Each structure stands twice: as structure tokens, then as C-alpha cells.
Amino acid sequence: MSESVPPSPQGPDSSAARPASPRGPVPLLLAILAAYALTCLAGWPQAGRDRVVQGQHAVDAVQQPHEAGAHPTAPPPLTTLPFVLLLAAIAIFPLAPGISHWWEHNSSKLLVAGVLAAVTLLYYLLSHAHPVDLHFPAHAVIAPSGGGLSWGTTGAVLANALLSEYVPFIALLFALYCVTGGVRIEGDLVATPTTNTTFLAIGAALASFIGTTGAAMLLVRPLLETNKERKFVAHTLVFFIFIVCNCGGLLLPIGDPPLFLGYLEGVDFLWTLNLWKPWLFTNALLLAVYWVWDTTFAHPRETLRDIARDERQATPLRIRGLLPNLPLMAAVIAAVALLDPAKPFPGTDWHPWVFLREAVLVGIVLLSLLLGDKRIRADNGFTYGAILEVAALFLGIFVCMQPALAILHERGASLGLNTPRSFFWASGTLSSVLDNAPTYLVFFKAAQALPAEGATMAGVDVGRLAAVSLGAVFLGAMTYIGNGPNFMVKAIAEQSGVRMPSFFGYLLYSFGILLPVFVLVSFLFL
């Protein structure tokens, strides 16, 4: 398997767009904060918070509408077709000749996602004659209109998708992406197996605290710079995807998008720390395999001339942009952990207002853009393209997945999944070929519909919840399309001249290395 070619001066894509001005969205962010301030003056976020708290105290609130005859009914399975088509487009269009170039544009992604989301909403508007559950800001059951268009049920589905799930999700990713984009690690260490393993280990530790996307964007460029004198580099980037982009992000909800969706569904912020044993086992084993591989096979293949050049051109690392961005990263973690409307602020009886957490995250991004050094973002090649791509696609995903979630909530017990191990492999298998965030939510809902066999968290048996978390996070590393940072790292590496494995070449790595590790995880921890 050919691993690399000498980097070209301009990379493989000389037409790549220039870095965007980091202060471009400042007026938009100010407008968002001003709009939220106006809603606070009107009392809307406070009223939403009060409904959340009242819903928690009203233990029988969920049953009351059902007893009145308004029982939510899931839509037919055919309504999941837009969801399936959207996920298929994400998987296939980047690889399809004649379509891949068109698909590169975020406007194309938004068009496909918007059309399929509109088809889903049209079903609820025109055809769904049953009540639906509303989850924002508190639970209610919305009955369809007696005749004509069902605006109420359609609005409830849209509120569930956007207000309850999409807005918190994209606000967190946007904050992590922008704040870490203001930090740059520069330098060129001697690219020994131990140096590269240390890079991967640091990434595994950081991924849970600044997100897999943040850790990947922070470390991939200095890793490439360190290895630029070496010829055999692709395996290092593959292990970087395994560890930093996926398996490292297991310990906190901000680590990986699936876990944040679980947090939004009621999983305690620190609960995933209970998964430290499989996290440590998996990442330590992958680091050991990488070190042996690089020491035994890859590094000895480098020429003496390249090794000498690597040692001669070595320069120490330096980090730019820690101020103000390091305190702002800590502020992101604090905002996510403490500003949940469903939980009182620590030491008080006060519950944060609805969307206060997201407003604070927007404010943190604003501070990062205004106070940070714009030259650092320019040196990082920072653009908003990647986060806009995620925003466009997930806008459609969160709407299109609503029928699937309703079906799983109603019929999850009949899927034949019961044991933690079966949930691990089912959620993991789909996370390998679909995006792992919506896959996590689908199996979370399926597990929630089953009777618990022991302790529970957010209405899910903790054994099954651990299995779904491990499956979605870990097996998202099995393909390039399993998790967003995977493709981002591949693109950056190729622009630096590294010949990355093809889609199926990557599968040789993942099936040969990851699959045996995950078999061990399923037997040892589930």
C-alpha cells in the first residue's frame, strides 16, 4: 500500500479557497445576542425555563394527555425514506463521478438537506392524522387539526428537531471550532515513533475536553509539519483519525457529537467519565500498536538522508493564541456543564433560562474573534467552510430523523435488541457507514423504549447506554464517513502532499486494526 508522496508546494488542490476573514461573522453574532436580549426583555426564555421546571415537578404530566385520548402514534416506516436518502447522499455523493464536484459546495448540501427536510414536514402537514409528542421546552402532546392542514403537529416536529436538538448541537460545535481555530502549534520535532505516539496520546487526552473536531484541527497541522521530511506518513494520519478524531472523545459530552445529543436527552454531564476503563484500554492499545508499527515497519524504511534532514531541520514547538482562547475553552466547558435549564445552577435553586447556554457560547466565539490574533487564524488557514457544511447537513438530518425517532420510541422493544453487546454492535455498525450522531440518537431512543434491568440514566439502562455510547464513538472511526473530523483530516493531509488511503484502502486499516480491538472491548466491558 503506497503511503505518501513528497509534498508539492501548493498541495493537490491549487484552487483551494483563501482563508476567510475571521471577523466576518461578528455583526451576525452581535445581532444574535441582541435578539436574545430582546427575548429576555419580553420574558420568553424565562417562561420557557419555567415550563421546563414545572414539567419536572408534574410527574404525571406525560400521562395526562394520553388519558384524554390524545395518544401519540408513530408514522409509517416509509416516512423514514428522506432520512435514509440524506444519509445515503452523504455517503455516496463525495465518491460519485460527475456529482462529487457539485457536492463540494455547501449550497448543494443545503439544497439536498432542505428538500428532504421539506418532504418530511409535508407529510406531517398533509397526511399525519395522529397526535405527536412535543419536547420543547417541556413535554406536551399536540393533536392534529380536525380538518385541513395540521400546522400544530408540523410545528411540534419542527420545534423538536431545531429548537430542542439542532440549535444546542450546532452552537457547541461552532464554539469549539472557532475557539480552537484561534490557537496554533508551530514547530518541527524529530519525527521518531515516540514523538508521533506522543502527539496521538495528547490528542486522545484533549479530544474529550475540546472535542474531537477541536483536537484534530489543533494537532493535525503540527503533526504534518513534524513528519514533512518522512516519506511513509499515511499510517500516522490513519491512526490520528482512529484516536484523536474518534476514540479519544469518549469522556465528556463535548468530546463527540453523539454524546452531546445524549446530554441534551438528559444524560448527566459527568456520566461518561464512568467509561474511562474502555477509553483507556482502547486508546492505550491503539497507541501501542502504532508505536510498534512505526518502530518496526515504517521508520526503518525511511532513507538515512531523510532521517538526517529531519534531525537537521528540527525546531522546538511553540504555541500561539492561548490567550484569550485557553480560558475561553474552559468557559465553553463550564457553559455546557452548568447552564442546563433542566438542572439548577450549582449551589442555588435558580435554573438557567432557555437558550442562555447557547447565547453564552455565541458570546465566547465573539470574544475569541475580537480579542484573538487574526494572523494566527490566517496561518491556520482558518475558514468557516467545514462548520457550515456540518450546519447545512445536520439541519436536514435533525428534521428527517423525526419519523425514525418516533417509530423507535413506539416499537423499539420489538427490534430484537436487548443486551448491551447487541446495542454496541448495532449502533457501531450503523455509525461506521452513517454519521454517528444521528445513529446514536436512534439507538438511544430504542434503548429508552425497553424496560431497564438495573440502574438507569435518562430513562435508559446504564449497560445499554454505555454500549450505545461506545459503539457510536468508537466505530465512527471505521470509515471516513463515520465522523465529521475523519474527512477533514484526510483533506488537510492530502493538501499537504500525503497520499491517504482510498475509501476501501482505509477499510483495510480499520478492519485489520480496529475491529479486533473492538471485539476485545465488547467482551471485556459489555
Strand content: under 5%
Count the E strands: 6
Q: What is the spatial order of strands in the main beta sheet?
A: 1-2
- The radius of gyration over CA amounts to 23 Å
Element string (H = helix, E = strand) = HHHHHHEEHEHHHHHEHHHHHHHEEHHH
Q: Shape from CA axes?
A: globular
Whole-number mean pLDDT: 88
In this structure, how is the largest beta sheet organized?
2 strands, antiparallel
Any low-confidence stretches, pLDDT <50, length ≥5? 4-17, 59-68
By DSSP (H or I, 4+ residues per run), the number of helices equals 22
Helix content: 55-70%
Helix and strand topology:
Elements: H1 26-42, H2 44-57, H3 63-67, H4 81-92, H5 100-103, H6 106-126, E1 132-134, E2 140-142, H7 151-180, E3 184-188, H8 193-226, H9 234-243, H10 257-264, H11 276-298, H12 304-312, E4 315-320, H13 322-338, H14 356-371, H15 374-380, H16 385-400, H17 402-411, H18 420-433, H19 436-448, E5 456-457, E6 460-461, H20 462-474, H21 484-495, H22 503-525
Antiparallel strand pairs: 1-2, 3-4, 5-6
Helix pairs in contact: 1-14, 4-6, 4-16, 6-7, 6-16, 7-8, 7-10, 7-13, 7-14, 7-16, 8-9, 8-11, 8-21, 9-11, 9-21, 10-19, 11-22, 13-14, 17-19, 18-19, 18-20, 19-20
